[in-house]
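About this split. The held-out portion is used to measure sequence recovery: a designer receives only the C-alpha cells and must propose an amino acid at every position. Recovery is the fraction of positions where the proposal matches the reference. Here is one held-out target exactly as it appears in the evaluation file.
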C-alpha cells in the first residue's frame, strides 16, 4: 500500500496544539490509556509497560498516519506545553466514514479542551481530509462524551457493536452538509 503524504504534523487552536502522536509520547500514552475513565469507557488496550505503549503507537497510530495522512493527535496546552489528552480521526474496520475520538487525563477534563480539539478535527475531516461523513461512538454510561458529540453537531443514529469489542455503543453521525447548515 502506498504511503500517504502527511500535510501537517500539527494544528492549532487558541489554546491548543494538536500534534501527531509519536514514540516520544509513549510515557503519556501509557498514563492516559491506564487512567480510570479510559479503562471504563474505552477499554483495556493491555498497555502494561512502556514498550507496550510504543508498540501501540507504532501499530495503531503511526501505521494509520502512513496509510491515510492523518490519525491520532496528542493535545498539548500552549501556555505550558502540558500533554492533556488525545483526539483523533480513526478508520475503523466495518464503519463507513471516519470515527472521531477523544480522551483527556482526569485533571484536564471539564475545561472545554476536548470540545475545542474535537471541533478542529471535525472541521479538518470535512475540509482538509475531504471526508463526507463523520462518526462518533460512546457507551450509554459515558454521558459527557454523548454531550460533546452532540455539541459537535452529531446525531445519534442507533446502536453499534464493533468487531472484537463486547461493548454496545451509541452511534453518532454527521454528514458534511449537516455541519455546513449549523
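Reference sequence for scoring:
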Amino acid at each position: 500500500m502506498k504511503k500517504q503524504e502527511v500535510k501537517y504534523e500539527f494544528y492549532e487552536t487558541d489554546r491548543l496544539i494538536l500534534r501527531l502522536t509519536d514514540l516520544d509520547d509513549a510515557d503519556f500514552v501509557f498514563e492516559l490509556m491506564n487512567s480510570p475513565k479510559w479503562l471504563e469507557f474505552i477499554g483495556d488496550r493491555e498497555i502494561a509497560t512502556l514498550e507496550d505503549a510504543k508498540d501501540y503507537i507504532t501499530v495503531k497510530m503511526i501505521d494509520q498516519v502512513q496509510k491515510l495522512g492523518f490519525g491520532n493527535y496528542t493535545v498539548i496546552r500552549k501556555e505550558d506545553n502540558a500533554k492533556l489528552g488525545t483526539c483523533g480521526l480513526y478508520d475503523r474496520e466495518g464503519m463507513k466514514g471516519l470515527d472521531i475520538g477523544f480522551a483527556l487525563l482526569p485533571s484536564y477534563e471539564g475545561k472545554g479542551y476536548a470540545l475545542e480539539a474535537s471541533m478542529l478535527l471535525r472541521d479538518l475531516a470535512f475540509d482538509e481530509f475531504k471526508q463526507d461523513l463523520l462518526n462518533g461512538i460512546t457507551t450509554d454510561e459515558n454521558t459527557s462524551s454523548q454531550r460533546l458529540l452532540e455539541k459537535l453537531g452529531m446525531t445519534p443514529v442507533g446502536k453499534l457493536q464493533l468487531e472484537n469489542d463486547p461493548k454496545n455503543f451509541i452511534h453518532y453521525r454527521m454528514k458534511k452538509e449537516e455541519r455546513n447548515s449549523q
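Annotator remark: The first strand starts at residue 10 and ends at 12.
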